[in-house]
C-alpha cells in the first residue's frame, strides 16, 4: 500500500503500512531516498490507538498504531518502503533526532529574540 499525493479528505483512516518488528539498521544509517511521513500525534480512539501521520503533501491520515514500528513516537520521521507484502514503515532515527534538534534550536532562537510564535486556529504553534 502506498499513499501518494492525490487530493482526498483531510483526515482519513488507513490501517496500513504494515509494521516491521525490527527495522533494518540501513534504514536509518544511510540517507533515505524514499517517501517520508511524520508522526504528528498519537491518540486513543474507539477503534484503538491511532497515529495521525502527515504525508509529504501536508495532508494527514490516521493509521492504526499497531501497523507502525514498535516504539514509534510523536515527531518520528518514518521512511516508507514498498515491499512484496505492501508498504513497510521504518523509523528514521537519525533524521528524527536532527529534525528535533533543528526545531529546538529554532525555538531557542525565537525565545532569545523575544519573538511571538504564530499560533493557528487550534492553538498550536507553527515554526
TrEMBL record:
Residues 8-30 have a biased composition (Low complexity). Pfam families: DUF3006. Residues 1-32 are annotated as: Disordered. It comes from the Bacteria. InterPro entries: DUF3006. This is DUF3006 domain-containing protein. It comes from Deinococcus puniceus. The lineage of its organism: Bacteria, Thermotogati, Deinococcota, Deinococci, Deinococcales.
Amino acid at each position: 500500500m502506498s499513499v501518494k499525493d492525490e487530493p482526498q479528505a483531510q483526515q482519513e483512516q488507513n490501517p496500513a503500512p504494515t509494521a516491521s518488528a525490527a527495522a533494518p539498521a540501513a534504514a536509518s544509517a544511510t540517507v533515505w531516498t524514499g517517501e517520508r511521513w511524520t508522526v504528528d500525534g498519537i491518540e486513543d480512539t474507539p477503534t484503538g490507538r491511532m497515529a495521525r501521520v502527515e504525508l509529504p503533501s501536508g495532508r494527514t491520515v490516521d493509521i492504526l498504531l499497531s501497523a507502525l514500528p514498535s516504539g514509534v513516537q510523536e515527531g518520528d520521521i518514518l521512511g516508507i518502503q514498498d515491499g512484496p507484502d505492501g508498504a513497510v514503515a521504518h523509523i528514521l532515527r537519525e533524521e528524527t533526532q536532527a529534525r528535533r534538534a533543528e526545531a529546538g534550536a529554532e525555538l531557542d532562537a525565537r525565545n532569545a529574540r523575544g519573538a511571538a510564535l504564530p499560533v493557528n486556529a487550534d492553538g498550536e504553534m507553527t515554526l
